[in-house]
UniProtKB/TrEMBL annotation:
SUPFAM superfamilies: P-loop containing nucleoside triphosphate hydrolases, Transducin (alpha subunit), insertion domain. Residues 16-81 are annotated as: Disordered. Keywords: GTP-binding, Lipoprotein, Magnesium, Metal-binding, Nucleotide-binding, Palmitate, Transducer. Belongs to the G-alpha family. G(s) subfamily. The lineage of its organism: Eukaryota, Metazoa, Chordata, Craniata, Vertebrata. One of its GO terms (molecular function) is GTP binding. GO terms for cellular component: cytoplasm; heterotrimeric G-protein complex. GO terms for biological process: adenylate cyclase-activating dopamine receptor signaling pathway; sensory perception of chemical stimulus. Residues 17-27 have a biased composition (Polar residues). It comes from Astatotilapia calliptera (Eastern happy). GTP binds at residues 132-137, 244-250, 269-273, 338-341, 412. This is Guanine nucleotide-binding protein G(Olf) subunit alpha. Mg(2+) binds at residues 136, 250. SMART domains: G_alpha.
Length: 440
């Protein structure tokens, strides 16, 4: 034993010095490339991980796959398999999504193609004209003739509109009796309390239209003074409008679709008042034809907006601006000279002469091609052709052969008249449509 201990320094060197050196060097980081020996065991620095691994006397380097334990290698293979399965599943799902999107895209293309074909086969008609010329009544006639009329709910709403028209009309008349110059008195002064009642309910928007109201309205209408005031209705704003005649101010743009002999028509009705006209430009693009509606009987009336401008002159100015509009130089106009029934009544009554409002009428002579209706009074024939020629004068003065004006005499509340006129216009519209798509 003593020999062993005495030979120890010779065999292993000075252990105390080694220990002291090791202790002094412990504060310095070991060299990762050079292994250190302690107790005869071969060790490898872990590079700061705080652990040293020994396997079968060999040095194991962390991250060396060739020297990982067998269990770890199997785990890595499973992970790779799972990742591969996940990638395959994701790829399959992406392919399904792409196929689904491609199918949706093809369906959209098919629908767009069908819509384009339908669009080219559709005749789009834009209804234009000054306020209260009868545009909306024309649309109603199209619904009656080609869209099975009105349903029960719409008829119920029209009843309310008609009642409101009655109220508005009687309120307007009795209010005008005292404001006209000269004023119009009641023939029966005892009916004054009825006027007071009518004026009291005038501002009510939620009115139940009791029997009392209708009794007062009927009694007042029987008064000769009220009738005399009605005869002077051209001096104030009185609505001139059953279902066709009821008047509702059109605000905005309304589309009516109907089909005649398997041909699709889209008719756009827009407001005719001045503040509504700025919306018309939205409908100008790619229309087949413009139907311009004129209230022929309005030659002695003023527009609602300023109570000063003559309504027929306003219609002429509007027609001129549309005819000369650079965006519409290729779109022909079908001119509906409407309200022929009311024009005939005014002309034959003789109370409002056209020459008082249009001095040029005194020098007007009926053209040779003018054909009167059977049994029509010559005075009515002369009046309606004068109004027609006023519009044709505008179209011929600035026409360049790219668009044309086709006049028709109409009575919008006469269903048969509108049926006949529209049938006459269908050939014109068809030619316009073919020319529009360069098929003619």
């Amino acid at each position: 034993m003593g020999l062993c201990y005495s030979l120890r320094p010779r065999l292993f060197g000075d252990l105390s010095g080694s220990i002291s050196n090791a202790t002094s060097d412990s504060d310095q980081p070991p060299d990762a490339a050079v292994p250190t020996r302690a107790g005869g065991a071969r060790q490898e620095d872990t590079g700061g991980c705080g652990e040293t691994s020994s396997l079968r006397g060999g040095l194991v380097r962390p991250g060396d796959p060739a020297r990982l334990p067998a269990g770890d290698g199997k785990g890595t293979g499973k992970d790779r398999g799972r990742r591969l399965q996940l990638l395959q599943k994701t790829s399959t799902q992406k392919q399904k999504n792409c196929d689904k999107l491609l199918k949706v895209s093809k369906n959209i293309d098919r629908v767009l193609k069908e819509l384009k074909r339908e669009y080219k086969q559709t005749h789009r008609l834009l209804l234009l004209g000054a306020g209260e010329s009868g545009k909306s009544t024309i649309v109603k006639q199209m619904r009656i003739l080609h869209v099975n009329g009105f349903n029960a709910e719409e008829k119920k709403q029209k009843i309310q509109d008609i009642r409101k028209n009655v109220k508005d009309a009687i309120v307007t008349i009795v209010s005008a009796m005292s404001t006209l110059i000269p004023p119009v008195p009641l023939a029966n002064p005892e009916d004054q309390f009825r006027i007071d009642y009518i004026k009291s309910i005038a501002p009510l928007s939620d009115f139940d239209y009791s029997q009392e109201f209708f009794d007062h309205a009927k009694k007042l209408w029987d008064d000769e003074g009220v009738k005399a005031c009605f005869e002077r209705s051209n001096e104030y704003q009185l609505i001139d409008c059953d279902l066709l005649r009821c008047r509702v101010l059109t605000s905005g743009i309304f589309e009516t679709r109907f089909q005649v002999d398997k041909v699709n028509f889209h008719m756009f009705d827009v407001g005719g008042q001045r503040d509504e006209r700025r919306k018309w430009i939205q409908c100008f693009n790619d229309v087949t034809a413009i139907i311009f509606v004129v209230a022929s009987s309005s030659y002695n009336m003023v527009i609602r907006e300023d109570n000063n401008t003559n309504r027929l002159r306003e219609a002429l100015d509007l027609f001129r601006s549309i005819w000369n509009n650079r965006w519409l130089r290729t779109i022909s106009v079908i001119l509906f000279l409407n309200k022929q029934d009311m024009l005939a009544e005014k002309v034959l009554a003789g109370k409002s002469k056209i020459e008082d409002y249009f001095p040029e009428y005194a020098r007007y002579t009926i053209p040779n091609e003018a054909t009167p209706e059977p049994g029509e009074d010559p005075r009515v024939t002369r009046a309606k052709f004068f109004i027609r020629d006023e519009f044709l004068r505008i179209s011929t003065a600035s026409g360049d052969g790219r668009h044309y004006c086709y006049p028709h005499f109409t009575c919008a509340v006469d269903t048969e008249n509108i049926r006949r006129v529209f049938n006459d216009c269908r050939d014109i519209i068809q030619r316009m449509h073919l020319r529009q798509y360069e098929l003619l």
